Amino acid sequence: MIKILLFAHLQEKAGSDQLTIDKEQTTIRDLKNILKETYQLIELDQVMTAVNEEYVMDDEIAKAGDTVAFIPPVSGG
Fold it and tell me: Which portions of this protein are annotated as coiled-coil regions (predicted)?
């Protein structure tokens, strides 16, 4: 299983700050597509992604036991 952490408006839309996906491995791109279809998280194209606390690109592979965090852009002043 792959653990997914969601922040800000993503967790509000999904109804949870944590999700799990029952996969042995998948690319971040495919994981985003699964979440877009299942939870209507179309905003995932605009977020930073970290696997095990290291930022990655969409072609990175997430494996069972990994923690994937989707971090929306923040603004402030």
Answer: none
